[in-house]
Amino acid sequence: MITRTLPGIILCALLLAGCASQPTGVVPDLPWEQRRDRLATLENWKINGKLALRTADMAESAAMVWVQEGEITFVNLTGPWGIAATRLRSDGTTLEVERGEDRRTYDISSSEAVAASTGWDLPLKSLPTWVLGIPFAAANDLQIENDLVQNFTEDGWQIQYERYEQFGLYTLPTRMSIERGDTRARIIMYDWSVSQHR
Q1: Alpha-carbon distance 16 to 138, whole Å?
Q2: Distance, CA of 94 to CA of 139 (rounded, Å)
Q3: What letter does residue 71 receive in the DSSP assignment?
Q4: Collapsing DSSP states into helix, strand and coil, what is residue 196?
Q5: How far does the chain reach from its first CA to its final CA, in angstroms?
Q6: Three-state secondary-structure class, residue 14
Q7: Which neighbouring-strand residues pair with 42?
Q8: What is the mean pLDDT of residues 31-56?
Q9: Distance (Å, rounded) from C-alpha 9 to C-alpha 7?
Q10: 3-class DSSP state for residue 86?
């Protein structure tokens, strides 16, 4: 049986406020359509950051290192003073969760499997794309200001970007939130490393 804390950690890792605003001085690297197409080709990247999750039943936060290598996602989460360090690996169909000596594998091949395995309905396929600052598929209510996405709705999730910064050749989000129903995740990206295109 999954403990009360473990689902929160899983949800935080996969999901992985206020009004969106573009920081003064940030100039997008390209016009929106070109930015979208260019970001969609990114395959390998790394984020150092923090995330916070709030649901009707819990509130969790953790330092985060997220490494994306093609379809493979690696996430390391660390609580205060290194408590409850957790490592996750996903290939889009399974999720491996390791905490100390405890290691579990979950079926995440579909939204139904995710709900059955973890107790949550998560947008697993969309998250790596949303983190880059672009919709995964056909988004509703897409709002773009100065060639940067401010917010949109996709599959019932409300995605909002609060801040962008320049990292090398790319203008990337540094603060965002994801919300649906009673579930809200806020992700802060302190640093991005982008290695190559597909």
Answers
A1: 20
A2: 26
A3: T
A4: strand
A5: 39
A6: helix
A7: 197
A8: 90
A9: 5
A10: strand
pLDDT tens-digit series, residues 59-102: 788 899 999 999 899 999 888 655 568 888 988 888 888 888 88
C-alpha 99, offset from chain centre: 20
User: Are the beta carbons of 143 and 152 closer than 8 angstroms?
Assistant: yes
Instruction: List beta partners, residue 158.
Output: 153, 179
Phi and psi at residue 19, to the nearest 5°: -80, 140
Tokens of 156: 């019932």
Q: Where are the alpha helices (DSSP H) in the chain?
A: 5-14, 32-40, 111-118, 127-132
pLDDT at 81: 55
Q: Which of 20-24, 26-30, 51-55, 129-133 has the lowest mean pLDDT?
A: 20-24
pLDDT of 82 reads 57
Distance CA 108, CA 198 (A): 24
- What gap in Å lies between CA 156 and CA 172, rounded to an integer? 23
Pick the range with the lowest mean pLDDT from 3-7, 43-47, 161-165, 170-174. 3-7
CATH 3.30.930.10 fits 5-16+20-191, yes or no: no
Residue type, 58: M
The model's pTM is: 0.80
